[in-house]
Specification:
The protein is mostly helical. It is built from six helices and four strands. The strands form two sheets. A two-stranded antiparallel sheet has the order 1-2. It has a two-stranded parallel ribbon with strand order 3-4. A hairpin with a 2-residue loop joins strand 1 and strand 2. Helix 2 packs across helix 3.
Length: 246
């Protein structure tokens, strides 16, 4: 190879002429052309005898888009985050029961007092209720007085076993004393107490929820008068009668 300026020989690989320092024409032409050449396909190597044409190298590396992790690929189903504070649709929702007051249960009251309060302390103003009358005295003579005066001819209502025994004990003692004094006085005393005794017997049988005339049934009538327990609930003859301390 010869230098195009001075004509002296030089190598093709030299960039400058060693004699005159002129730029090698081949090196200058190679600098203006891209360095990379395309590789021919294997099927085209037998058809190309000359130099392969060079392809322009843009030297621009491929740019890869940064994936967005907050978005789902198109066509893929998106699953929403479940909300655990809400009941699934179509499922029944159960509410917490209220154990303080059962719903649907009636709240029975008697004159403004809850059911069962009538059996509490009588000092709390629970005498006048719809179920109980706290009118029976613990004093035997007081019961005798009431039966002889206020209820002398009262065949209605109820009388407790204690009321009956209070009256009968005192009347029996009075009749025995009168008989001891004089038989006529004893007969008059028995006649005097006859009506209140029958009225009390009717009320006593009513207390066990039986008709009053049951007191005339032999043996069974005497059992109802002396030993039968009171009906614990109000019946057709009246309210339950109790002492204030019961």
């Amino acid at each position: 190879m010869f230098c195009s300026k001075c004509g002296n020989g030089m190598n093709e690989t030299d960039k400058f002429c060693p004699t005159c320092g002129n730029l090698n024409a081949n090196q200058a032409s190679n600098q203006g052309q891209p360095n990379n050449q395309t590789t021919p396909n294997p099927g085209q190597q037998g058809q190309m005898n000359g130099q392969m044409p060079l392809q322009q190298n843009t030297n621009v590396p491929p740019q890869y888009a940064q994936p967005t992790y907050n978005q789902y690929p198109q066509g893929q189903p998106q699953y929403a985050q479940p909300n655990y504070n809400q009941q699934p649709q179509g499922q029944p929702q159960y509410t917490q029961p209220n154990y303080g007051q059962p719903q649907g249960q009636p709240n029975y009251q008697m004159n403004g007092n809850p059911a069962g309060a009538a059996y509490g302390n009588p000092q709390q103003g629970m005498y006048n209720t719809d179920a109980v009358e706290y009118v029976v005295s613990s004093n035997m003579f007081e019961n005798f007085k009431v039966a002889l005066t206020e209820k002398f001819t009262d065949f209605n209502g109820r009388a407790t076993r204690w009321e009956y025994w209070s009256f009968e004990i005192i009347v029996t003692v009075i009749i025995i004393v009168c008989e001891a004094i004089d038989s006529t006085i004893g007969a008059l005393a028995s006649l005097l107490f006859l009506v209140p005794r029958i009225a009390l017997a009717f009320r006593r049988v009513h207390d066990s929820n039986h008709p009053g005339w049951y007191c005339f049934i032999p043996f069974y009538g005497q059992y109802l008068l002396m030993f039968a327990e009171s009906d614990p609930v109000p019946n057709q003859y009246g309210k339950v009668r109790k002492q204030p301390n019961q």
